[in-house]
Structure formats: C-alpha cells, structure tokens
Design a protein that fits this description.
Blueprint lengths: L4 E11 L5 E13 L13 E2 L6 E2 L14 H11 L9 E6 L2 E2 L7 E7 L5 E9 L6 E7 L5 E4 L13 E8 L3 E10 L2 E14 L5 H6 L4 H19 L10
C-alpha cells in the first residue's frame, strides 16, 4: 500500500428495508503511516501536521478516549485490549479523514495492522455517530474466513440494535475497497462501501488532486443530514431514538 496517500473514490449506501433507499457520492479518504506521519509536515498550505492548512493531520483527534498519549501507543493498547496479538515487525496505518479547514469528523476510521510480509492481520474499526459524537471500536481479524461483528453501538436513528455486520476488504498496492453488509434476523437490510485509488503524497499531481475536494469533511456532514432528511420526511422511515 502507498502510505501517506490520498485515496480518491466513491462511497455508496443501499437500504433494503422497509423501503429501498440508495445513494453514491464522490469521497476522499487518507491512508497515513502512523509511525511516519511527520513526513507530511512541510510548508504546504494544502497538507500539514503542525500548521494551518486545507488538510491537517492532528493525532489527538484519533482514539481520543484512550488518553493523551502518542497515537501509536494508544492504538497498540486498544488492539491488545480487544484481543489482537501483535508482532514487533507490525506496521500501522490509518484509513480515514483528516481535519479539513479546522473541522474534524470521520464516521469510520480503519486502523490497519500490516505484518513484515505486507499482509494485513487485523483492522480496528473506530465508528463515530452523529450527532452524539460517540465512538466505538470493533476488532476485525483478517485471518477469519468471514468477519462478522454483533452490533454494539447506535449509529443511525433509522436502524435498531438487533443487527450484525459482515465486513469484506480488498487492499492492493494502488487501490483500496471495503464493504459492510448489515443483517437483521438473517436478512440483509443495508449495505455500504467505499472504493478508491491511491495517490501518494510524493506524486507530481498529489496537491492538485487534493485541492479538488476542498470541503471533503463538510460534504460528509452535509450528506449525512441530507440523507436523514430524505429518510425521515420523504420516505417516512421510522425514527429510532438512542437507546441511552
């Protein structure tokens, strides 16, 4: 995988019950080498780590419930707590969003654990909900033939909690793709995914491509509320309150 890269692609959702509802948007994600994120530092006004920029990597925004420690330490601690067996040669990558013009929000961050022969052993999924701004973590073991998690966290006010997630991934040197199928009572009720092409930060056209999406995070938030409006007011999908 091309670490410290911009992943340019599309995100899509499809609901099957109680009524069909689907959409697709262009979306960028970032693939960051957690142990080498300092390589992003520089004088660029497009991408930086310690200065105001269009996109900025702020380590404190990730795994925020794990204390004020280096992101690599927080990640290893959380992985170990959830049962991952780590090796000294493992490398760690973040696939998610960066702060965009001072605003940070990422519905899903995926932390990839890659061994010394470039195989992804584990993925830690950090899920955020809107508007409650809570987070929950699922450990995904890539050695399993089927990666399935019981839903433990309220994400959408249009789905209940009696569900399970079926995850699938396709990672190559130049492309990334993942899909989440949601099942309820053994029926697939929802499917969502992302696929995109990686452009390394050292590529000649990197900054030009990054600048083409100047409001990426703002677009995510606007899209969430717009689709919620369609579900609730137009398609009359029942609203399910937060269980807490």
């Amino acid at each position: 995988m091309l670490a410290n890269s911009l992943c340019i692609g599309n995100v899509w959702h499809k609901r099957f019950e109680p009524r069909i509802h689907e959409f697709q948007y262009k979306l960028n994600m970032w693939l960051i080498d957690i142990d080498r994120f300092e390589d992003l530092a520089g004088n660029s006004r497009i991408l930086n780590t310690n200065k105001t920029a269009l996109y900025r990597f702020k380590p404190e925004k990730y795994l925020r419930d794990e204390g004020n420690y280096p992101i690599s330490d927080k990640l290893k601690k959380k992985l170990t707590e959830l049962g991952a067996i780590l090796d000294s040669g493992d490398k760690f990558y973040l696939l998610g969003q960066l702060s965009n013009l001072g605003l940070y929000f990422s519905p899903l961050n995926l932390y990839l654990v890659v061994n010394d022969i470039k195989q992804c052993n584990y993925i830690l999924a950090e899920v955020s909900n809107t508007p409650w701004n809570e987070r929950y973590y699922y450990l995904l073991d890539k050695s399993q033939k089927q990666i399935i998690n019981t839903k433990k966290f309220h994400v959408s006010p249009f789905f209940g909690m009696n569900q399970e997630y079926h995850w699938s991934f396709d990672f190559t040197e130049e492309k990334l793709a993942f899909k989440i199928d949601t099942y309820e009572n053994e029926r697939k009720v929802f499917s969502a995914g992302f696929s995109g092409k990686l452009i390394n930060a050292k590529a000649n056209n990197f900054y030009k491509r990054a600048f083409r999406s100047p409001l990426n995070v703002y677009k995510i938030i606007a899209g969430i509320y717009f689709e919620a409006f369609r579900l609730w007011f137009i398609k009359k999908i029942p609203f399910i309150p937060h269980p807490k």
